[in-house]
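B., you asked whether I could sanity-check this one before it goes into the benchmark set. Here's the sequence:
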Amino acid sequence: MRLFLSSQHLGNKPEEFAKLLKGKTRVAFITNAADVYPEDSIVEHMTPRLEELKALGLEGTRLDLKKYFGKTEELAKELANYDAVCVAGGNTFVLRRAMFDSGFDEAIMPLLKEDKLVYSGWSAGSCVAAPTLIGIELMDDPSQVQKVYGQEPVWEGMNLVPYSILPHWRSNHEESEMAEAAFEMFTKEKIPFKTLRDGQVIIVDGGEERVVS
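And here's what the prediction gave me:
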């Protein structure tokens, strides 16, 4: 399994993401964590990220999970056309609900286990890789799920890593103070977790895991 879990965008060394693709180039760019915002705002923030992928020699194409709600088999077929997914930040709970309603876990897991696809994400896109989203409510508002999708939040993560991920920790970011509160909660409740400062990335490549800054 190959994972690229970042605090902010592709981190300080985005070339490490390109290396993880091992010469392949097709990237599905998932923005559903930002469904709390108007479409024009999503496009505005997505465009420079797609340009960043292009500068790395990669081809990013937006994949909207809303189009696959209740269509897991179709999503699995679509994901098979890509070499990586890049899951952007926003509201972790909104993103996780979109994953749940589209059957994203079921669709992507065989591709990850067979090493046919890289999972990458930042902020919310990293948080969902954990076993649970408990504690992330100190950073993101779970009630946004009801406002956006008319559904309840999903608290189980994808369980790609055996610990929670705390992004924006002690960084120059508007959520850093909230990250400190989550840090205290994880510590108090003895929830396994790893912190990421903006610029840092957890990379998993098979049995090897490392942090790059």
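One thing to flag: The first strand starts at residue 2 and ends at 6. Otherwise nothing jumped out at me.
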